[in-house]
Amino acid sequence: MRFGLHAYTLKRGIMFQFLALVLTLNIWQLGISGAKATDPDIVLEVQLGEGAVIGFTIDDLRALPLTEFETSTVWTQGADTYTGVLLLDLLYHIGHTTVRGAVMVRALDGYSAQVEADLITAEAPLLSFLRNGTPMSVRDQGPIWLIFPYDNNPAFRTESIYAKSVWQVRSLEVQH
To answer: How many helices (H) and strands (E) does the chain have?
Structure first.
């Protein structure tokens, strides 16, 4: 009986090692690290749960499909052109082909807002890193501003949407 238990334990151990290897390879392929990204060029961290974090540089974001729109905001004067990655496209890129729950958006100053799945569409919100073709500094709502095309749709001109329009975005947490 002792040999049978040992064989079971050995098989189970091999199976877990194999699964760990497969998971490690998949995580490596996605560019995920199990800890906080320490690269100083990382401008956005996406937490996937279970401690997995993907770090993105501006160059990483530029490599994704880009979206651009012109809109005015209640925080700036006049209309500006914003360029970046749709939140939906970023989620697709990291393997979330269907959005459930919400995404918690956190800013450098500690502010956070929850963006519900029904707000994440092919129209908005945008993780903008350029305003009028120029990178945004922290002083000017950058380096990333979660923004909506306020002028395109009256539904985007509400206090609820304004509260979700987080500037100085540092991290996203995908909630299920």
So the answer is: 4, 11
pLDDT digits (tens, 9 = 90+) for 112-161: 999 999 999 999 999 999 999 999 999 999 999 999 999 999 999 999 99
Same domain, 147 and 169: yes
Q: Which range of residues forms the domain containing residue 91?
A: 36-175
Answer yes or no: do 94 and 17 share one domain.
no
* Alpha-carbon distances of 37 from 14, 34, 47, 53, 134, rounded to whole Å: 30, 9, 11, 7, 25
Q: Give the DSSP letter of residue 155.
A: G
Whether residue 65 is found in the same domain as residue 121: yes
Q: Give one DSSP letter per residue of 54-76, joined into a string.
A: EEEEHHHHHTSPPEEEEEE-SSS
The confidence score (pLDDT) of residue 99 equals 75
Burial class from Cβ neighbours inside 10 Å (0-12, 13-18, 19+) for residue 56 reads: buried
What's the CA dihedral at 84, 44, 138, 107 to 10 degrees? 110
Which residue numbers in the chain have pLDDT < 50?
1-36
Question: Is the same domain home to 83 and 163?
Answer: yes
Res 37: pLDDT: 53
